[in-house]
Amino acid sequence: MLADENDHTPFLKAILTTDPPWDALRIYADWLEERGEVDRAEFFRLQAEIEEIDDEEDPWVEALTARRYRLYRRHRAEWLAALPTLPGIRWEGSAGFSFRSAHLWLDDESWPGQDSLDRLFAHVPVRDLWIERIQPEPARLLARSQWLDVVRRLEIVLNPNNHLDAVETLVQSCRYQRLEALTLPLGRGGWSRQATQRFAVLDAPRLNRLRLIGGVFEAGPGQALRDLLPAELPAKLRGLGLFLQTIDRTTLEWLDDSATWPHLERLDLFRNALESDDWRTLAHSKLIRRLRGVMLANNNLGVRQAQIVAQAGPFPEVEHLDVSFNRMSDVALGILLQAFQPRSLDLSENQLTLHGYGDGMLGPDSTWGRAFWETPRLTSIDLRSNRLDRRSAALLAQWPALTRLISLKLADNPRLGDAGAIALAKAPPCPELALLDLSNCDIRGPGARALAESDLLESLELLKLIGNPIPWHDRVALTERLGDRVVFTLVPRALPMTSGEGP
Q1: Does residue 322 belong to any structural domain of this protein?
Q2: Residue 152 CB contacts under 8 Å (≥ 6 apart), including other chains
Q3: 361 neighbors 331 (Cβ within 8 angstroms)
Q4: Which InterPro entries does the record match to this protein (predicted)?
C-alpha cells in the first residue's frame, strides 16, 4: 500500500532542491521502508547507487540495473498507476517515480499546460527531459518555467516538426543551473539552418556532456563546429558525441588539441563514414590515448581499418569500446583487440562467429585470436545480433574471461538454439555474472533444461529468455530455481503512456 501522496511531499521537495539528491533519496527510502514499502525503498537505494557511479558504461551499472529491473517488473503496474496522468506527457523509464526521463511534446495540440507541468515536477523529481514537436508558444512558456532549473539531462529529439526558432528559444533563453548533458539536433528539425550560428549555453555552468546530431556544413564540419560552439565550452566537456555527420580530418585534428579539450574523456562518433585517412588521423592522435570511452559504431570498421588502428596502438587508457553496427568480421575483431584491453566491449550488430575461418579461430592458439582470448580487464561484453552458433557458445564456455564477466548479452542470435544453450550451460560457475541475455536465440525445451541445471546461473540477478519458444513445464523448472530472476516475456504495458522495459 502506498503512503498518502501528501506525506511524500517534503521528501520530494528535498530531492528536488538538494544537490546532489542521492542522500535525500536514501532518507526517503528509509522512510518508505519504515512504512512497509521495502521493495520501493530498495529500488531507490539502487537508483542512488547507479547515479553516483556517474559512468553509464561501467559494467557494475549492469548488475545494479538488473536488480532494479526485477523490482520494477514486480511492482510496475502499482507504481506507474500512482503517477499522474497528464496530457502531453509520457513517462519514460521504470520507477515509482522516474529518474530517467519524462517525454514532452511541445506542439500546440499536445502542450500539457502550465498546471500539468507544475504537477509533473512536483510529483516526480525528473532528472532527464526529452522534448520534441517544439512549437514557438509552448517553447516560450516552458522556457519561462522554473522547473527547467532542476533538469540534469535535456534531449531535444530530432523531429522535422520542430520549429527552428522554438528550438533556439529553449536553448538560449532558459536557466539550466543543474544541466549536465545536452543533446541537440542540427539542421532541419534542430538547431539552425545557419550552422555557423553559435548557441550559447552560458546559463548551464555544469554542462559537461554534449551530443550533436546531424547537420550539413558548407564550410566543412571542422570549421563549422568551431564556429558553432561557444569558445569556453570545449574546456568544460568530459563527453562529446558527433552523430550522423561527416567528420573530416580538420575536425579530428581540432579534437586532438588537449589545450582546447583538457577534460574530454569520452568521444562518440556514431555513423560518421570515416575514411582510411580519418582512421589513421584518429589512431595516431594524442586524443585516443587519453580517452576512457571510445564509441565508433556504424563507421564501416573492417580488416583494413582495424589494421590501421592496431598498428598505432596500444591504447591502455580506453576502458569502454563500442564498435557495434560495423559488419565486423572475426578477423577484424582479433586485429582490433591487439590495441585495446577494455572493461566493457560492445560488439552488437556485427558479423561475428568467434570461431573465425580455419586458422583464424579465436582462441589461445591463434596468432590473432589470442587478443580476444586474453582480455584481462573485460567484465562486460555485448554480442547481440551477430552470427553466433553452437561452436561460438562452446568457445565462450571455455573462455577465461567468462568467470570475470558481470554482463553477457547474446540476444538475437537464433543460430545458437538448443545446441548453443547446452554448450553454454557447461560453463563453470561465474560468481560475478549478474546479467545473461539469451533473448530471441531459438532456445526450446532441451536448451532450457540444460540452463536450469547449469552452474552458470548461480549468481545471476537476471536471466533474459524473452522471445524463445520454451515449453511451459520447462519455464516452470527455471522459475523454481531462479524465481523472478528469469524473464520470459516483456511486461505488458499496463498504461498506454509509459515506455521503457529495463536494462
Answers
A1: no
A2: 127, 128, 178, 179, 180, 181
A3: no
A4: CHP02996_rpt-companion-dom, Leu-rich_rpt, LRR_dom_sf, RanGap
Grid coordinates of 476: 516452470
Flag whether 389 is in a domain: yes
Q: What CA–CA distance (Å, rounded) separates 73 from 65?
A: 12
Check whether residue 70 and residue 132 sit in a common domain. Answer: no
Cell of 118: 507544475
pLDDT in tens, 358-398: 444 566 666 666 778 878 899 999 999 999 999 999 999 99
Contacts of residue 280, defined as CB under 8 A and 6 or more positions apart, other chains included, come to 308, 312
Determine the number of helices (DSSP H) and then strands (DSSP E) in the chain: 17, 17
Instruction: Kindly state whether residues 75 and 96 are assigned to the same domain.
Output: no
Domain count, the chain: 2
User: What's the residue count for the chain?
Assistant: 503
Alpha-helical (H) ranges within 35-151 are 38-53, 59-81, 114-123, 136-143
In 3D, which of 132, 196, 129, 139 has the Cα closest to residue 165?
139
- Residue 17, Cβ density class (10 Å: 0-12 exposed, 13-18 middle, ≥19 buried): exposed
Range of the domain at 52: 5-79
Residues 150 and 53 both lie in one domain: no
pLDDT for residue 197 is more than 60: no
> Cell 582510411 sits at which residue?
276
**Among the listed ranges 274-283, 376-385, 430-439, which one has the minimum average pLDDT value?**
274-283
